[in-house]
C-alpha cells in the first residue's frame, strides 16, 4: 500500500512523515527541504504529497499516484 507523505511542522523544524506512521521519516531545517524529500518519496511510491503550514493545517496537495479523477482535456 502506498503511503501519502506529509510535510509537517516539528518544533522550529520540519518533518516528513508517512501517513499512519508515528515516527518521522526525516527532519529538516526548512520546509522547502522537507517538501523536496517528501515529493521524491511520493513520486517513487505513486502516492500523494500533503504539505501542512506552520499551524498544522493542510496548505497544498500534490498527487503522484493513480488519480481516480484525472483532469480532462
From TrEMBL:
Organism this protein belongs to: Parabacteroides hominis
Source organism, top-level taxon: Bacteria
Name this protein carries in UniProt: DUF2188 domain-containing protein
Feature: compositional bias, Basic and acidic residues: 52-64
Pfam families: DUF2188
Annotated region described as Disordered, given as residue ranges: 1-28, 52-73
